[in-house]
């Protein structure tokens, strides 16, 4: 299963977006390194989970129109990062509105530089990409015979993560709480945490079964077993980093030990596993 996921990631062209069926009326639009859009058809409209980046949203729209001509009327954001939200301007021009957790708008509006993380400059989102409505804990959206339940997961990838659950279809979009074949990014600067990522994985497992189709933030549709391994990786790496911090080790010493070694395939290889260790170490060492 995992090898097939990785092979699919490698073969994808960064400027090609494809649409694949999950169930009748439910599709996933994806492309290499781009956030997955979950497409849910209602009786007279289309609901999207995530909006894509501004650079590739046109490609996503073209892919969408190969399966339906229904108008996009609502878009839900799984978190604030621009590869999931920036394309909202495109959908808004077609008459759509956006919904997100209440922490997403303030994060999208920030103009700041993260000096201790490669001078990461966060620029404010365009007004037309911002959410129109927000929720605190959960929100139910009715699409005729289908329901989408948006559920907030606190302090994990960011402070405004939301998963989209289709209870009648047994489909779950996790956003970037799960990214098979890639190193998870913990946005410590926007309320994310490693413990929160572990709790989120546990929550996903509590809401799913062996038949659930899980749509990650990036990559191929997966099953519950991949999330089990993902959670085991997070817990193992966290515990090893805590012990290393208690022993007074530096990041360079930790990297030599390769604390994610047995999970490198899940993380996209040794180099990318090292990137995850670095991100995780940032928060663990501060504690």
Question: Summed up, what is this model?
Answer:
This protein is an alpha/beta fold and 287 residues long. It is 34% helix and 25% strand.
Describe this structure in words.
The protein has helices at residues 2-11, 57-64, 82-85, 88-92, 104-108, 194-207, 224-246, 251-257, 264-267, 270-286, and strands spanning 18-23, 26-31, 34-41, 46-49, 72-76, 97-101, 112-114, 120-122, 133-135, 138-143, 146-153, 161-166, 171-175, 213-216. The protein is α/β, with parallel strands linked by helices and 287 residues long. The chain has one domain (2-231): Ribonuclease Z/Hydroxyacylglutathione hydrolase-like (Metallo-beta-lactamase, Chain A), CATH 3.60.15.10. The chain starts with a helix and ends with a helix.
List keywords for this structure.
287 residues; Metallo-beta-lactamase, Chain A; 14 strands; disordered N terminus; alpha/beta
């Amino acid at each position: 299963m995992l090898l097939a996921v990785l092979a699919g990631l490698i073969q994808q062209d960064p400027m090609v977006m494809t649409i694949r069926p999950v169930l009748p009326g439910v599709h996933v639009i994806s492309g290499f390194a781009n956030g997955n859009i979950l497409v849910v058809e209602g009786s007279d409209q289309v609901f999207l989970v995530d909006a894509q980046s501004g650079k590739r949203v046109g490609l996503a729209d073209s892919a969408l129109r190969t399966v339906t001509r229904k108008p996009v009327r609502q878009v839900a954001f799984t978190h604030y990062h621009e590869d999931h939200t920036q394309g909202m301007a495109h959908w808004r021009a077609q008459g759509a509105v956006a919904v997100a957790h209440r922490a997403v708008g303030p994060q999208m509006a920030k103009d700041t530089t993260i000096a201790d993380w490669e001078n990461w400059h966060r620029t404010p989102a365009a007004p037309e990409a911002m959410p129109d409505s927000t929720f605190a804990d959960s929100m139910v959206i009715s699409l005729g015979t289908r329901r989408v339940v948006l559920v907030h997961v606190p302090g994990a990838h960011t402070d405004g993560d939301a998963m989209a659950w289709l209870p009648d279809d047994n489909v779950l979009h996790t956003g970037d709480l799960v990214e098979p074949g890639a190193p998870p990014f913990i946005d410590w600067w926007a309320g994310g945490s490693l413990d929160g990522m572990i709790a989120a994985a546990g929550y996903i497992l509590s809401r799913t079964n062996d038949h659930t189709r899980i749509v990650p933030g990036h990559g191929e549709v997966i099953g519950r077993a991949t999330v089990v391994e993902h959670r085991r990786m997070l817990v193992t790496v966290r515990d090893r980093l805590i012990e290393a911090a208690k022993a007074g080790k530096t990041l360079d010493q930790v990297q030599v030990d390769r604390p994610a070694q047995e999970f490198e395939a899940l993380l996209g290889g040794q180099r990318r596993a090292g990137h995850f260790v670095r991100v995780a170490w940032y928060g663990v060492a501060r504690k």
